[in-house]
């Protein structure tokens, strides 16, 4: 962990130092350069004129570069290409290694097609050596391709491989159905390249299933698909050989001979392919032997064996020697037969070619002396048993592989079903949550609305109380004034008058020379009386109507604020406004507007004096607030919160508001509200 | 022989009665033998008037306008008392002495009672009281200068406003709003508006506002 981290650090450091101030463009160039290099190397490795070890070296180099590419389907593709290169130079281990790498990469980047391709290639690696492993990989590839339409050609290739493996495992019916499926894929992919192989496989299967006529037809059909292609001759020879074998199985030896001879007539072709040549010769010889046409027997066997010896075709030698052993056994030349049978058994067991080995044991048990013969018979029985067992095992194994994948598929299905349920549940829960949230929000906003409403009501109530308070105060004051007025008028004034009259009366009668002086004081008393009466009158007449309270509240607001802010003010209220009968909401709004405007003036206007008027014109109350401050640009400040509040309050009363201002010419706020 | 005079002085201020007494009992004692009764409230006054009507009636009544009302609430002022007195004691000379000098008050008193003497306390001096007393005793009416002024104003205006119109003007002058007038004058708002317009027409200032009306009324002495 730590070391890998360290390596990464080192790599990063190297990259930084190497590419220093490289920008991303150069990195992209680097990628392109590398990929071009990889492509050219792969191309180079295809050159068959170069010795294989050199080609391998080139491919190694190609992979070394390719592995530094960024992970992508492109990189995976190139690795696959390199693996094919290894395959063509028969470096199967490297081929396998490459495909394992590409499988890993494809899995890492979730490239299903790449995974299928790699599985297919790995299947190809195992198909000759370990058919159960091959079956496993092909089956996996088949699973993936089944889910990915549009790759019929690749899928078909996998299916024909599967069909061949199943045939080898002697599961003929399954093999047949898979092969037919492969044919369907190729047909729908409109590519006939692999059809001959398919029909050949069907032919072989039909032979094993003893549908001989069908088998011949399949082989002929296989030839048909190659007519006009470069594979025509090769396929014809293969099919003729196969047809010969079919007839041989049918014991129609003449027919078999006919086809073998037909095949052998392609001398030019066969000269270049000694293995095929030997096979055909051997097969012909064997049919001749079986049909008792012993004219050129055993020479024909030897001709074939000679070729096979020369090319070290060990499978061929095993079969060839077996045939010879059979021949000599039939001739009663047991010792010679035993020699060939032994050679065949040795070769077969080396090659694990069990069919041949079995036959060899059978011959050996016949041609050996009784003791040896018994031993070979035992070996034969044992091998036969084990072969049957193996066969069964293979089928079981395939079934198990199939079953496991089915199980996985089922599990996947179940998981996907569970996922579906989970998704539905999550969606449901989300919807529920959303619904809940929406309801919650709705309620919240309702609450807010209700709150705003109650607040407004509370505001009104406060104002009403405030006004009531003002009225009560006023009433109290008036009552007190009235009382004082009456007290002065009736009490003090009356008594003063009484005193003055008495004094006057006495003064009239007195004759001490001070009458005039006293008269002067009596006059003074009289003028005091007058003064008191005036005061009393003033007090008594100041009978204010109750609606003055609102205007009092307004005036006290203005005077309080102006006193605090040290600004002069002038306030005029039109007496024609019937404040008592104007609803509280309007009064409160006008009060608030005034308050807001005054705050604006104190905050921003820098004014020295304010003039506020309530006018009553054509059933409308006009509130004008005028200041001599610095003013503002009407458009600019229009959207301030204060002005917005005023505007909204005015529109609430379905009135009109105007803000008139210019720089350095003060501001006029005029509000007109219908009563 | 001194002429006997029976006088009832009605005033809730003993100090004032003291003043009357001090004035009248000086010089006049030589000519008249004055017997003075005192009442300080309507009940008391009414009792005394009633009693005298059944025995020796008062020759003269000094009536204050503002008095504590009678306990049964039927007599609330000197004005009411004077009305009763005029019925009970038709020969008695009634002198109204009041602090009120407002025109409509004077007007109403003159109209309702038509007293032999009408003195405004604030104008009154002891010598004037004596003068009034002597005049009235001889059967001559005596009014204070203020009251006389009122007469003069009424004469020059050639018309008179009735009590309700005067009240309207009076309350308007006190700053009462037109719409509140029904509380002060027992008329509907529309009737008041109508009367206001009539007054304006009489003042030949039709279509003028209230302020103008009051100015004019003041000028003409109705307020």
TrEMBL record, chain A:
Residues annotated as domain Histidine kinase: 590-675
UniProt xrefs under SMART domains: TPR (SM00028)
Catalytic activity: ATP + protein L-histidine = ADP + protein N-phospho-L-histidine
Gene Ontology terms, MF aspect: protein histidine kinase activity
EC number of this enzyme: 2.7.13.3
SUPFAM superfamilies xref list: ATPase domain of HSP90 chaperone/DNA topoisomerase II/histidine kinase, TPR-like
Keyword set, alphabetical order: Kinase, Membrane, TPR repeat, Transferase, Transmembrane, Transmembrane helix, Two-component regulatory system
GO biological process, one term: phosphorelay signal transduction system
Protein name per its UniProtKB record: histidine kinase
Taxonomic lineage of the native organism: Bacteria, Pseudomonadati, Bacteroidota, Flavobacteriia, Flavobacteriales
Automatic annotation (TrEMBL), chain B:
UniProt cross-references to InterPro entries, sorted A to Z: CheY-like_superfamily, EvgA-like, Sig_transdc_resp-reg_receiver
Protein's recorded name: Response regulator transcription factor
Pfam annotation, one family: Response_reg
Native species: Aquimarina mytili
Modified residues (4-aspartylphosphate): 64
Biological processes, Gene Ontology terms: phosphorelay signal transduction system
Keywords, alphabetical: Phosphoprotein
Response regulatory domain ranges (all copies): 6-136
Lineage: Bacteria, Pseudomonadati, Bacteroidota, Flavobacteriia, Flavobacteriales
């Amino acid at each position: 962990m730590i070391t890998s981290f360290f390596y990464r650090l080192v790599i990063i450091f190297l990259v930084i130092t190497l590419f220093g101030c490289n920008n991303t463009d150069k990195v992209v160039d680097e990628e392109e350069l590398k990929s071009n290099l990889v492509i050219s190397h792969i191309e180079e490795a295809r050159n068959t004129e170069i010795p294989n070890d050199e080609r391998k070296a080139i491919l190694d180099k190609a992979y070394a570069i390719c592995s530094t590419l960024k992970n992508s389907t492109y990189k995976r593709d190139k690795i696959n290409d390199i693996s094919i290169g290894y395959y063509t130079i028969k470096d199967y281990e490297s081929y396998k290694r490459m495909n394992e790498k590409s499988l890993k990469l494809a899995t890492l980047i979730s490239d299903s097609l790449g995974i299928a391709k790699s599985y297919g290639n790995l299947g190809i690696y195992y198909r000759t050596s370990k058919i159960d492993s091959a079956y496993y990989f092909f089956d996996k590839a088949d699973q993936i391709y089944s889910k990915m339409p549009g790759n019929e050609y690749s899928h078909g290739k996998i299916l024909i491989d599967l069909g061949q493996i199943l045939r080898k495992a002697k599961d003929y019916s399954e093999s047949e159905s898979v092969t037919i499926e492969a044919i369907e894929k190729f047909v729908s992919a409109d590519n006939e390249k692999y059809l001959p192989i398919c029909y050949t496989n069907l032919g072989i299967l039909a032979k094993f299933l003893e549908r001989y006529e069908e088998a011949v037809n399949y082989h002929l059909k296989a030839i048909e698909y190659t007519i006009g292609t470069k594979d025509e001759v090769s396929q014809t020879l293969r099919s003729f050989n196969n047809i010969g074998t079919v007839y041989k199985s049918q014991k129609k030896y003449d027919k078999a001979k006919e086809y073998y001879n037909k095949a052998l007539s392609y001398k030019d072709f066969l000269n270049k392919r000694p293995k095929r040549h030997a096979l055909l010769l051997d097969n012909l010889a064997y049919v001749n032997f079986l049909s008792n046409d012993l004219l050129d027997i055993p020479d024909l066997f030897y001709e074939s064996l000679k070729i096979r010896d020369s090319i070290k075709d060990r499978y061929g030698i095993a079969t060839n020697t077996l045939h010879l052993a059979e021949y000599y056994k039939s001739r009663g030349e047991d010792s010679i037969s035993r020699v060939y049978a032994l050679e065949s058994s040795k070769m077969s067991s080396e090659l694990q070619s069990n069919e041949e080995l079995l036959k060899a044991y059978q011959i050996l048990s016949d041609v050996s002396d009784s003791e040896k013969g018994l031993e070979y018979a035992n070996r034969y029985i044992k091998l036969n048993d084990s072969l049957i067992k193996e066969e069964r095992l293979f089928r079981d194994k395939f079934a198990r592989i199939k079953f496991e994948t089915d199980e996985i598929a089922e599990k996947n299905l179940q998981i996907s079903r569970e996922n579906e349920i989970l998704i539905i549940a999550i969606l449901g829960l989300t919807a529920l949550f959303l619904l809940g949230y929406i309801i919650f929000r709705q309620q919240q906003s309702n609450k807010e609305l209700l709150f705003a409403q109650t607040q407004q009501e509370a505001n009104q109530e406060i104002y009403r109380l405030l006004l009531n308070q003002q009225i009560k105060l006023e009433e109290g004051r008036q009552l007190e004034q009235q009382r004082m007025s009456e007290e002065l008028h009736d009490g003090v004034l009356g008594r003063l008058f009484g005193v003055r009259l008495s004094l006057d009366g006495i003064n009239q009668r007195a004759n001490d020379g001070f009458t005039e002086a006293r008269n002067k004081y009596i006059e003074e008393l009289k003028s005091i009386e007058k003064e008191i009466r005036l005061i009393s009158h003033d007090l008594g007449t100041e009978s204010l109507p109750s609606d003055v309270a609102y205007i009092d509240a307004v005036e006290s607001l203005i005077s309080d604020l102006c006193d605090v802010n040290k600004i002069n003010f002038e306030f005029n209220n039109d007496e024609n406004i019937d404040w008592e009968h104007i609803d509280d909401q309007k009064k409160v709004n006008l009060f608030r507007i005034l308050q807001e405007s005054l705050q604006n003036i104190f905050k921003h206007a820098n004014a020295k004096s304010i003039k506020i008027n309530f006018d009553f014109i054509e059933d409308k109350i006009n509130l004008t607030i005028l200041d001599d401050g610095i003013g503002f640009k009407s458009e600019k400040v229009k959207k301030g919160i204060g002005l917005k509040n005023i505007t909204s309050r005015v529109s609430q009363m379905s009135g009109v508001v105007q803000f008139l201002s210019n720089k350095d010419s003060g501001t006029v706020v005029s509000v007109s509200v219908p009563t | 022989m001194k002429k006997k005079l029976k006088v009832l002085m009605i005033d809730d201020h003993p100090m004032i009665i003291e003043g009357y007494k001090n004035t009248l009992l000086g010089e006049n004692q030589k000519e008249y033998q004055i017997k003075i009764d005192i009442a300080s409230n309507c009940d008391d006054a009414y009792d005394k008037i009633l009693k005298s009507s059944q025995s020796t009636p008062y020759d003269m009544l000094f009536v204050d306008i503002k008095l504590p009302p009678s306990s049964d609430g039927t007599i609330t002022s000197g004005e009411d008392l004077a009305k009763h007195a005029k019925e009970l004691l038709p020969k008695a000379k009634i002198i109204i002495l009041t602090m009120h000098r407002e025109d409509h008050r004077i007007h109403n008193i003159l109209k309702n009672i038509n007293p032999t003497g009408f003195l405004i306390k604030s104008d009154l001096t002891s010598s004037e009281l004596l003068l009034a007393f002597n005049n009235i005793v001889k059967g001559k009416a005596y009014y204070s200068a203020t009251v006389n002024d009122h007469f003069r104003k009424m004469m020059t205006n050639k018309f008179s406003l009735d009590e309700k119109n005067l009240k309207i003007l009076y309350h308007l002058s006190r700053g009462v709003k037109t719409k509140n007038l029904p509380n002060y004058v027992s008329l509907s708002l529309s009737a008041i508006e109508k009367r206001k317009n009539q007054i304006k027409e009489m003042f030949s200032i039709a279509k003028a506002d209230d302020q103008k009306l009051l100015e004019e009324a003041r000028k003409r002495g109705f307020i």
